[in-house]
Amino acid sequence: MPSIAQQQTKLQQAVALHRNGALEQAQAIYHEILAMQPRHFDALHLLGVIAAQTRDPQRAVELIGKALEINPNSAAALCNRAAALHELGHLEQALANYDRAIALKPDYTEAHFKRGKLLHQTGQLDAALAAYERAVALKADYGAAHFHRGLVLHALGQLDAALGAYDRAAALATDDAEVHSWRGDVLWQLDRLDAALQSYDRAIEIDPAYAQAHSNRGIVLRKLEMLDAALESFDRAIALKPDYAEAHFNRGVVLRELRRLDEALESFGRAIALRADYAEAYCHRSYVRLLKGDFANGWLDHEWRWLDKYGSNIHERRNFPQPLWLGKENIAGKTILLHSEQGLGDTLQFCRYAKLVAALGARVILEVPRPLLNLLVDLEGVSQLVVKGTALPPFDYQCPLMSLPLAFNTDLDTIPAEVPYLRADRSKVAQWQARLGERIKPRIGLVWSGNPRNRNDRNRSIPLAELMPHLPAAHQYVSLQKDVREPDRQTLQANVQLLDFAAELHDLGDTAALCECMDLVISVDTLLAHLSGALGKRTWVLLPFDADWRWLTAPTDCPWYPTARLYRQARIGEWRGALERLEADLTRLR
Questions:
Q1: What are the residues facing 386 on neighbouring strands?
Q2: Within the chain, how many helices (H) and strands (E) appear?
Q3: Does 23 have pLDDT greater than 90?
Q4: DSSP assignment, residue 367?
Q5: How many CA atoms lie within 13 A of 50 on its CB side?
Q6: What is the pLDDT of residues 404-457, one digit of tens each?
Q7: Residue 361, number of CB atoms within 10 A of its CB
């Protein structure tokens, strides 16, 4: 039998080969050693390591387990068996092995790091963060630990701290495409878009086939309103990974914004084919279908809004014990709750259906946000009006307002478009008429900006200074804005001919009464456009190139509001053409 010294020499040869990647040669020598000494701890352990490296974790667990029978206090063997158990999905056993390794060797950096990865995978983010922080405390230049620490901080929403971790990882691993790509992700979430683009470009420079970096680069380019370049990035991501559902979805969003609607539908359809529960894709497909007037399919897709984790409806979903009514059941003699959702403008647009529901013989309870209470108090078809958030009376069925078009199978020919269906308080109208005085020329109400928190506000709102030069002096102009932004306030103060009653508009009832005193309302796509349309006022709506689905695609008409005329941007971000058309029509107005 060879001596212990000879066995040791062979082991050293095998370890050198192993470190240099010559796994088959190293494996052969380890087997030679075991033939000489079947209970050789190192040979068994390192054969197990090779099994793990060659993607045979089950064999790795068996071999390292035999080694641990010989030396149960080897922290390295425990850590390596934990990694193999982790790969097999035996997470509790893996964690126990990591814990045992660290108990034997508290400064075992690799065990802390791998334990952090397991905790991260199982959603134990705080514990994972602590493990990664212990690893980088033990080894300050541990790039992978800094990167994974960044991932956990990112998941916890601590974006600045995550960026710091990614920066450190990138400095230590300059050629790691994944690090640069994730760094880009947190930068775009921090709205540092140019820096994010640089990170994605660096990731792609390192790994041109990195599909996720191409796709996320497209997201940033879209945010930068570089839509053609964004489309190219999504196309490249899909070419690299044809089954990349997110890239197909985001490609569809860009195509919709470019008004290439049929192509957008194709992209959303592909995303849904790849992921049947892709709620966000169904929602965006619904917007395109509704925009094109395909109401039958659009309303069906729109019901996915309750599952879209990026939409507002997921936070508004109600869990009533009463059944949802979508037009199937006979509700004659029953009480039904119609409840508002999304914005105030959405409520104003779809509250018109209350009359149709009541006509089926139901008693209608309408739940609305408090700012709409006084305005909707006399809405036809409503038996009882309640404020959202207060106690509800008994009811038999319930339906969200924006599901009513589906319940009534609404198509372009059956939109309930009779106006006015809202009316302002007569006494308030009289007060405003007295306040305004004798009408000596056409009186025009103006709304140039919406809610700044709206995700599309930058596209739909217009600076007052850009609007003013297109308002002929032959008319009297009245601001219907309740909230005026500071730059617009300066313009308003400089144009005393534009009457401003913001301080006297205490609620939407006041605004509706002031609207009633106008001969025409000009508004961007915001609440006041719906209010004026519902009051049956002549309403001119200024729309961005990528207008909301409810305005459809007709050049100037909207079937939801027969008294409305639309002025659409011809190009993204370019208001000049729409404003010139509006100015020409104002000049002809009598």
A1: 367
A2: 28, 10
A3: no
A4: E
A5: 23
A6: 999 999 999 999 999 999 999 999 999 999 999 988 899 999 999 988 777 777
A7: 11
- Whether 538 contacts 442, CB under 8 Å: no
Burial class (CB in 10 A: 0-12, 13-18, 19+), 26: buried
Closest by CA position to 470, among listed 585, 342, 306, 325: 585
Distances (CA, A) of 446 to 81, 423, 465, 542: 71, 19, 13, 11
Report the CATH fold assignment for 426-588.
Rossmann fold (3.40.50)
User: What is the distance between the alpha carbons of residues 353 and 144, in angstroms, rounded to a whole number?
Assistant: 58
Integer Cα distance of 482 and 432 in angstroms: 15
* pLDDT tens per residue across span 242-255: 999 999 999 999 99
Q: Which residue has the higher pLDDT, 65 or 384?
A: 384
Query: Which of 7-16, 80-89, 205-214 has the weakest average pLDDT?
Result: 7-16
Decide: 542 and 522 in contact? Cβ < 8 Å: yes
Closest CA to 464 of 481, 443, 451: 481
313 pLDDT higher than 90:
no
Please state, in angstroms and rounded to a whole number, the distance separating the CA atoms of residues 157 and 443: 50
Measuring CA to CA, which residue among 395, 370, 401, 400 is closest to residue 383? 395
Calpha distance 581→578 (Å, rounded): 5
What would the two tokens of residue 489 be? 């306030």
Beta bridge partners of 477: 444, 498
Q: Please state, in angstroms and rounded to a whole number, the distance separating the CA atoms of residues 542 and 88.
A: 59
**H or E stretch at 348:** helix 344-350
How far apart are alpha carbons 589 and 142 in whole angstroms? 72
Q: CA 242 → CA 189, 235, 245, 488, distances in Å?
A: 26, 9, 8, 48
Distance of CA 523 to the CA centre of its chain: 27
Q: Which two tokens stand for residue 61?
A: 């667990």
Residue with tokens 């149960």: 72
Query: Nearest CA to 178 among 145, 152, 207, 139?
Result: 207
Q: Is residue 477 within 8 Å of residue 500, measured between CB atoms?
A: no
d(CA 302, CA 264): 16
